[in-house]
Amino acid sequence: MKFKITLLIFSTMFLYAQPMSNEKFTKYKQMAPEVIDIINNQTQAIISCFEREKSLQNMNKCVSVSGKSIETMIIKLIPKQTNKLCTKNSNNKLSFVWSDKNYKIVISELKKTIDKNKENKQCILKSKTVEEYAKCLVKSKKVS
Predict the structure, then answer these.
(1) Which of 48, 71, 75, 109 is most open to solvent, judged by the fewest CB atoms within 10 Å of its CB?
(2) Whole domain around residue 40: which residue ranges?
(3) What are the DSSP calls for 93-132, one per residue?
(4) What span, in angstroms and rounded, lies between the C-alpha atoms of 104 and 78?
(5) Rg of the chain in Å (alpha carbons)
(6) Spatial contact of 47 and 58, defined as CB atoms under 8 Å apart
(7) Is residue 134 domain-resident?
(8) How confident is the model at residue 121 (pLDDT cuts 50, 70, 90)?
């Protein structure tokens, strides 16, 4: 499962970096929806865990199952919010700033990530070519 997620990430990076042949797109199209579902299910499980108890201790407990920290989760899943949600100490180590507002932002941003993944999955499923997929992604970004 971890291999499929890594492969999807690399495939997506290459998709944006260089043109993808229709043959490669067909392989990507076969694999990506399942991987997106796995990512969304894992993200939803984290959200559900966060919502059980509103506390920094609970958030850390929920994320620790993955062996990562809350800061690592923020950097990887919602990087645009890192500066808003975390502070750096003198050693450049990030620390999540606990507040009710930041707690709500994390949950909201994770839900947005799931929605974006669903849009991406729909684009993959309805596209027959790389060009159609690219147009769909551009269109979905304009709508969001």
Answers:
(1) 48
(2) 2-118
(3) -EEE---HHHHHHHHHHHHHHHHHHHHHHHHHHH-SSHHH
(4) 13
(5) 17
(6) no
(7) no
(8) very high
